[in-house]
Specification:
With 119 residues, the protein is mainly β. 5% of the residues lie in helices and 44% in strands. It has one helix and ten strands. It has a four-stranded mixed beta sheet with strand order 3-2-9-10, with no helix packed on it. Strand 9 and strand 10 form a beta hairpin.
Length: 119
């Protein structure tokens, strides 16, 4: 049985702290088709309480995380004018190794973001 899994977290780089309360949806992508496989929300540490894709549901493939950041930015007076520059942030990535821990974090500010493959 594969032992791979996926985790994520969000750091607010504008305020220098974890981003609590951001809803995150995970989709499996095949061509232009998206199938939602998980949804979670970040806790006080900016992480989900459990892997967003745990071992028992893990399958190699192409995935997309969508971070719903608009409400967080508004609630923390970081949003600026409507429409927001950043509201929903999609990150598409591939996971090939069925026994690996994949970690895809989001470093967020009101006008930019970055990501990387973490550990």
């Amino acid at each position: 049985m594969p032992q791979g899994y996926l985790t994520t977290h969000v750091l607010d780089t504008a305020r220098g702290c974890p981003a609590k309360g951001i809803r995150i949806a995970l989709y499996r992508v095949s061509g232009n088709a998206h199938k939602k496989v998980a949804e979670s929300e970040t806790n006080a540490d900016g992480r989900t309480d459990a892997p967003i894709l745990p071992v028992e549901k893990f399958k190699p493939g192409t995935y997309e995380l969508i971070f719903f950041c608009g409400d967080y930015l508004r609630d923390n007076d970081l949003a600026g004018e409507d429409p927001l520059f950043l509201d929903q942030i999609p990150i598409r990535f591939g996971m090939a190794d069925e026994d690996a821990h994949y970690h895809v974090p989001l470093l967020l500010s009101p006008y930019g973001y970055s990501t990387y493959r973490g550990s």
